């Protein structure tokens, strides 16, 4: 399932940044969690999606607050949990094959960074 | 506690896709592993019904499935997943979270018209890897916590607390807020920079200030293309 696609350009930058040697081992970061949702959790999300009508905000909010966030809380081992917002999206294929993320939504390829 | 693991994002996938991330790519405090000299680009092939939960500050990207590249990709991305029990401590210790609201045009996928996905990714990642935001973003100085790490993120929507009428294009592509505008924690600071002139002025000052540190990084030539095209449009409009 996990495919290492270490790109030349990235490896150069990484080595420049931290002065390290790239190694061959692949380490799945313990802070990144891949979760398979249960059928109940997934059904609650699917209920809010309708191919014709779009997404029902109220149903989705209930699904996220009552089914998804509690699951995440358990996965993280936290005592409480909150999420500020969610973005719903379908990424589009353009005729030239380039992927375009809809412009009306929040950033996804995100420069969500910690600033020192 | 490391700041990087206090704020998570999550993507819930309803279709096949790939989630790419760079392990250990968070800035300084976010070195999640003991082995500090290991940063890897990892592609995770996602099956429908899976979710990925990750620290928001890790460099990551949404990609199409390798095995089913034509699959549509319906996702729900959840931002700012935090433990509210830490709010008071974070406020008291000045661990600020700046949320900068930007003009809509800053989300325009303009450069997708000139570069393919891999080229664009490499340009973007080069800046991020060197701890600089994209060339069309700027970091807001935070005097209060100048010597402390803090979060910053950029968004184009705002939490109005009421429902707008949804257009056909927004059936699937939009933000929904899970808290009301008055429920933001005290350490979150909302900064309204949607005014175009204010944004461009701040961007200009920030770019000039950062120029010595960003010179040579990818991104400048993107601005070159942008400026040439805008000038071209202006000249064409003016000559009519």
Write the layout of secondary structure elements.
The complex is a heterodimer of chains A (116) and B (240).
Chain A: E1 2-4, H1 8-18, E2 33-36, H2 39-48, E3 49-50, E4 54-55, H3 57-76, E5 82-93, E6 99-100, E7 113-115
Antiparallel strand pairs in A: 3-4, 5-6
Helix pairs in contact in A: 2-3
Chain B: E1 8-13, E2 17-22, E3 41-46, E4 50-55, E5 60-63, E6 73-82, H1 87-92, E7 97-101, H2 117-129, E8 150-155, E9 174-177, E10 188-192, H3 196-214, H4 220-239
Short description:
The complex is a heterodimer of chains A (116) and B (240). Chain A is of the alpha+beta class.
Q: Domains counted in the coordinates of chain B: how many? A: 2
Count, helices of chain B:
4
Mean pLDDT of chain A: 63
Give the biggest sheet of chain A. Answer: 2 strands, antiparallel
**Strand content range of chain A:** 15-25%
Radius of gyration of chain A: 19 Å
Low-confidence stretches of chain A: 1-28, 93-116
| Main beta sheet of chain B | 3 strands, antiparallel
Describe the structure.
Chain A contains three helices and seven strands; from the N terminus they run βαβαββαβββ. Chain A has 116 residues and is an alpha+beta fold. Chain A has a two-stranded antiparallel sheet. A two-stranded antiparallel sheet of chain A has the order 5-6. In chain A, strand 3 and strand 4 (54-55) form a beta hairpin. The longest helix of chain A has 20 residues, at 57-76. The two termini of chain A are 34 Å apart. Chain B folds into two domains: 1-81, no CATH class; 90-240, no CATH class. In chain B, helix 2 links the parallel strand 7 (97-101) and strand 8. The model of chain B is unreliable at 28-35 (pLDDT under 50). Chains A and B meet through strand 1, helix 1, strand 2, helix 2 and strand 4 of A and strand 1, strand 2, strand 3, strand 4 and strand 5 of B.
């Amino acid at each position: 399932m996990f495919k290492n696609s270490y790109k030349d350009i990235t490896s150069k930058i990484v080595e420049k940044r931290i002065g390290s040697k790239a190694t061959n081992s692949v380490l799945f970061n313990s802070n990144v969690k891949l979760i398979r949702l249960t059928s109940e959790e997934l059904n609650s999300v699917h209920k809010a999606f309708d191919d014709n009508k779009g997404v029902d905000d109220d149903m989705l909010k209930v699904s996220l607050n009552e089914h998804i966030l509690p699951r995440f809380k358990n996965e993280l081992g936290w005592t409480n949990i909150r999420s500020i917002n969610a973005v719903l999206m379908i990424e589009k294929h353009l005729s030239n094959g380039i992927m375009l993320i809809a412009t009306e939504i929040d950033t996804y390829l995100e420069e969500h960074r910690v600033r020192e | 506690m490391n700041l990087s693991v206090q704020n998570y994002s999550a993507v819930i996938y309803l279709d096949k896709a790939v989630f790419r991330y760079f392990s250990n790519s968070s800035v300084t405090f976010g070195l999640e592993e003991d082995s500090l000299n290991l940063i890897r680009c990892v592609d995770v092939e996602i099956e429908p019904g899976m979710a990925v939960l990750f620290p928001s500050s890790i460099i990551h990207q949404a990609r199409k499935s390798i095995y089913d590249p034509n699959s549509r990709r319906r996702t729900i991305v959840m931002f700012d997943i935090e433990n509210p029990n830490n709010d008071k401590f974070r406020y008291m210790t000045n661990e600020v979270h700046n949320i900068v609201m930007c003009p809509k045009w800053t989300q325009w996928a303009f450069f997708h018209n000139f570069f393919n996905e891999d080229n664009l990714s490499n340009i973007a990642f080069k800046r991020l890897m060197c701890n600089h935001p994209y060339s069309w973003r700027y970091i807001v100085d935070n005097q209060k916590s100048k010597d402390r790490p803090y979060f910053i993120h950029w968004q184009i929507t705002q939490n109005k607390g009421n429902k707008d009428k949804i257009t056909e294009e927004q059936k699937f592509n939009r933000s929904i807020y899970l808290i009301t505008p008055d429920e933001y924690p005290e350490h979150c600071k909302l900064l309204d920079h949607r005014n175009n002139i204010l944004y461009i002025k701040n961007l200009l000052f920030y770019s000039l200030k950062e120029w010595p540190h960003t010179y040579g990084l990818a991104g400048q030539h993107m601005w070159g293309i942008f400026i040439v095209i805008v000038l071209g449009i202006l000249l064409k409009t003016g000559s009519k």
